[in-house]
Amino acid sequence: MHVGVTIFPTAEAIEMPELAREAETRGIESLWVAEHSHIPSSRKTPFPGGGELPRMYYETYDPFVALAAAAAVTERIKLGTGICLVVQRDPIHTAKEVASLDRVSHGRFLFGVGGGWNVDEMENHGTDPARRFKLMRERIEAMKEIWGHEEAEYHGELVDFGPLRMWPKPVQQPHPPIHVGGGFPGAARRAIAYGDGWIPIGGRDSGLEEQIGRFREMAGEAGREGLEVSIYGVPPKAEVFVKMQALGVDRVITFLPPGRRDEVLPVLDRISAAAQEARAGAPG
What we know:
alpha/beta; TIM Barrel
């Protein structure tokens, strides 16, 4: 089972090149970054975590810029969007960003996607929240066409363009793995329909063991065996890692605080130690 970390990359946090190097040195498999283009001042949409929305939500860097900085100074660690808000992005530009990042990282990009939760933010981008999941599917399908063909076109209800040429193409073929974030059963169904993996948030949904089992059954029924399961927000504890591995989880992803190096590096040390302890089979 792989162990990854995720952070809101901001100007106030540890710099991405340093974080990526330190994570790679400690044997962390993947580094994931969040995305919000902005947060509307209206704040009509309540924060899912309750209370005031933390500043990091409207201070975060563009994820592709942040991950490109990480790619430039590392060799092995995988780099993921956790998650990219494709419902707020032009699919042609996003297809180019994905392919470009996969090229500059030499095939280390993991494309985490989702529909988002902030209705105000979506509406500022002209996205109808009620139709965002249909839009997400069409935009991802359209990007797959762009990545997979010398001349691509796509004709859907919400995404429609004629023949075009767009390079570079991704290193990973047919495209970087697409990991669909969100809860069960909706995001699980979307992952099976057009993804390569599913990312539920640990602790947010009860019955995770049952959900993972049902996801595996659903994927098998659809002929999509082998899809990865990555659990977001897993505590950095060896016993938890061991439990997740026993459930057949492919990857656990642990949150890092959006702080300076003296706050982040000790957390990285704890995550690395927990991973080593779990691998040794002696949690506790």
